[in-house]
Amino acid sequence: MNYDYSLSSPVPGLRFCSVNTEKNFKVAVISARFALPLTGDIAARALLPFLLKRTCKKYPTLTAMNRRLAALYGAMLSAGVNKIGEAQVITFSITSLEDRFALDGENIASDLTDLLLDVLFDPNLTDGAFAEEDIEREKRLLIERIESELNEKRYYALKRCTEIMCENELYALDRYGKIEDIQTIDAARLKKAWNEMLSNAVVFVSAVGSMNAELIRCRFEQRFDKIDRSRINDIHTEFITTPYETHRVKEELPVKQGKLVIGYRAGMTYADDNDAAIKVMADMFGGGVYSKLFTNVREKMSLCYYCSAGFNAAKGLIIVQSGIENENEQKAIDAITDQLNDMKKGNFTAEDLDASLKGLTNLIGSVSDTPESIDRWYANQMLDSEIETPAEYAARIGAITREQVIAAALMVEQDTIYMLAGTLTEEEESDED
Amino acid sequence: MRTEIYNELVDEKYYHIVHPTGLNIYVMPKPGYSGAYAVFGTNYGSIDTKIRSENGETVDIPEGTAHFLEHKLFESEDLDAFARYAKTGASANAFTSFDTTCYLFSCTGDFNASLRILLDFVQSPYFTEQTVAKEQGIIGQEITMYKDVADWEVLFNLLRALYHKHPVRIDIAGTVQSIAAITAETLYDCYRNFYNLNNMALAVSGNVDIDEIEKICDELLKPSEPFLFERKPFDEPDGICRDYIEESLSVAAPIFSLGYKESYGLPKQTLKQKIAVDILMEIIAGSTSPLYNELLEKGLTNTSFGFESFFGFGYGASIFSGESKDPKAAAELIRTRIAELKATGVSQEDFDVIRRKLYGRLIMSYNDVDDIAHTFVNAHFDGEGIFDPLDVFRTITKDDVSEALSHMMRDEFAALSVINPIEQEK
Description:
heterodimer; A: alpha+beta; Cytochrome Bc1 Complex, Chain A, domain 1; five-stranded mixed β-sheet; 22% strand; B: alpha+beta; 21% strand
């Protein structure tokens, strides 16, 4: 079903988006996102959501807070930090049971709105400051979170490639900031970051479910009443169409499988510039199982288990990832380059294009089947001036032609080849079994 | 025969069809949804390492065969299944677990056309020595990839510490060496044994028409011999193999997994036992528990900490895992607090809080079409209905949870698996 959304701006720089899903779902989502430029005290702002979500004045201990969520039928309060282009986005989100399933007639959505607002506006402060022990605990947790990114080699290699590729752009900065900047965070910096989040961020609040959205909107409006919202940050992302220089970097880790990552510039000059054509092109190149990378590099050449291309429209990047044997590095690079050149030359059939158009419109269609994906769909557009529904985007995708795909492919320029080579061979690991 | 089952609490209904071919079909229509999801699964996974040959003998098959077969079933003499799905726009996949192999797709377009592809390719094996050889390279890379994943290794090492013989201790995909022994003939033999419609289930949820589905099934399902594969109990001793196992990998900090080997008397737990254990694990280590917070405050775990009741045919383990600078101290604290809880017993207040939490989560689980379809298949292979847990939640008491605790998490059956960081230059 295509749900309508309703958008309003009750507070300067804040948009409230609600989607009434009627009685189709068991689950409802309420979320608030705060976007700030990827400059300044990134580390303190990254720590903030994790610290805030753990307690509030009303539920001052971890256990009290978690018991409250459990009592509200296992509602899940999550917090996180990500990047949309060169913006740092702090997310608070609550997923919960729809009101009509409450056993004792409670208004779950209303109770959770109050809880979320308490988390944002009424933290557990002692003499106006965040408690030292809470700060120290969250610093440890955040640093361990960053360090353990090493454990996921696929993600780690992707991140290293992006850092190297964008070394002269803000985008290279970690969404959580630098570890040395986290280590020195104190109560004063956190208080400042908290004020900055509430006063200067671009804010997007979303309510997806059958709840009374008007009530949620009013409560957010009331709480923001006391906040000075006269200076909202401008957020701008730099787009590079032609690489300054091409990098080829090799790093090593004691692992068995190598990870190859190739970063390309998609030729965009602003967010969403020609995004539908690039999306289709990237999908034909390395999206689904019908893509050139899957059918050739995996299926025909048996070089890998995965080889895929992802498109980041907010920064204008296309990134190819594959897990391979070290010795196949050049072979894989050549094969991937050949497939991209085929896209540029138009060496694909009408069926290939049709497979991507169908595959993508199918995926976009399924956005409206979970409240969580509806919430993410609109929130991902929080920095766009115009909001687009899944159906509108699917219509733009469906209209992309062969010529537009070729034109999009011709704009793509290779920037960085990153290889995370494994230093462990099969023989060295034969102590087990 | 088609039966309609309605549940008032979640306000959902589904149809159960026992098809003349022997296949059990479950369909939960979701008229307000855009898309639909289908799973076609067989009760055959990595723990099934023996088959009955055509002359009735029991024969060992190479480790990783179920998974290999899953990869190869997508291929056919002309167009492979992925290429056929490309024409409908459905997003298709498959996976192999310890005790099931499932083929699935999701789509918002022409559901019926995609269902036809699913039913057809799963019933049409086509294996040749060439295509088998080609797959050995791809799966070889899949196996190698998992060897670098600490969360995966820590679990399988734990299972090898807990189990002497039960095949739950072997890797689902096998090893590069074991899959080298797989031939087209092995795949055909396994297919004949396990891909009998009596041994399978089809589940669908989403914006679909039950009559259309039944019509397509009538047309495409091929009659199969009245044969139901039955797992034989594994000859596994009560005790564990060893209480500690470690490996070094490229990780930032040590990863641990503490597991208690469980036995339930029967090869499989009852639904009530499963739910009692879920409640118990939450009481012990969930985010509302003192232990969870103690581990966090003492710096012994971080947000990666989690737990799992891990069970299947003839195996079961209660597992606590996460990242820790001091895995032995973390494990020690968990063991101590569990021993204390065994002495003091479960409190009514804790039980009430957790029952409400898990009740909410259970209702929420009837939301997403993929979750619903997979729950149908798993419930079918366990001899349960998808709404049965709702009844259990209504009647379960604190005493059921105490009863579970009294014979579970026995300290002498615990093992600790640790992945240490490889010493490396930064």
